[in-house]
From TrEMBL:
Family annotation (Pfam families): SGL (PF08450)
EC number: 3.1.1.17
Phylogenetic lineage: Eukaryota, Metazoa, Chordata, Craniata, Vertebrata
Class in the EC hierarchy, top level: hydrolase
Residues of the SMP-30/Gluconolactonase/LRE-like region domain: 40-287
Descriptive protein name: Regucalcin
GO BP annotations, alphabetical order: L-ascorbic acid biosynthetic process
Subcellular location: Cytoplasm
Major subcellular site: cytoplasm
InterPro entries given in the database record: 6-blade_b-propeller_TolB-like, Regucalcin, SGL, SMP-30
Residues binding a divalent metal cation, per UniProt: 42, 178, 228
Amino acid sequence: MLCIYIAYRRHMDVAFGQRTNEAMSSSIRIESVVKEKNRMGECPVWEEWENALIYVDINSQKVCRWSAVSCEVQCVSVDARVSSVALRQHGGYVITLGTRFAFLDWDSQKVTTILELEQDKPNNRFNDGKVDPKGRYFAGTMAEETAPGVRARRQGALYTLFPDLSVIKQLDQVDISNGLDWSLDHRTFFHIDSLAYAVHAFNYDVHTGKIVCPRLVYHLEEEERMPDGMCIDAEGKLWVACIDGGRVIRIDPETGKRIQTVRLPTSRITSCCFGGKDYAEMYVTSAYDGLDEATLAKEPQAGEIFKITGLGVKGIPQNFFAA
């Protein structure tokens, strides 16, 4: 089956001292590669040995895998909202669904619960998650809306699942625990609490997995809206997906400055990761839940997954959960 691509050119904002706007924007290509629309596509992870992108559709309660070879999508349905997925060292995946950590065996579609947290908070669920450089799974929680625009504040937390399947709580009183990643030297942890509209950094002990000393890296501008998922590139710069802002932005964590913006053809941009040959491609998820009929008519590609090429920077492979 051939992939049918639709290419978009979008202007990019580049800070002084970087390559010119004209040179960079002319090299950028944005293609829709997964046209099966996701209600809330999230947590893309490149699976190198399968030449595939694994991701979740939270609100459809599915873990999906898109093959870059066949362009086909396969999905496994689960029994709760599944918010993140990561690769396992021994095969299969580790996922967060509802308020549970669990293993997912792709071939049998079997989900095995590891443990359940926050049973005293029935409106909570897990959100984004990612594996650290030593094979620990970091994942955070959030309170669901009880009515449109109504959400209990500071009900979430950030947890770490260790390879021995023990868990510690790293942060408390979080609103919406979201994007996360680690610096290339493994000394800094980056984290997004979406309702803070900011990226924060923490000192990170690679030996223990503990995080301390939070500090502000970047506060989003009004037009960028709310930060969602995040990844790091091979130059140590952060890429943040801006939900309702229709873009991904590149941030220099050393200076706290935005140095690049890539706009996409739909507003609800949810997360991003690098993949493909040499990790030179960026994959960006989106959502259509939350858009009214008029907006959906203007954004017919809402919920699709996009591939960006020509960024001039590569990513790094994802870490494996060490169990």
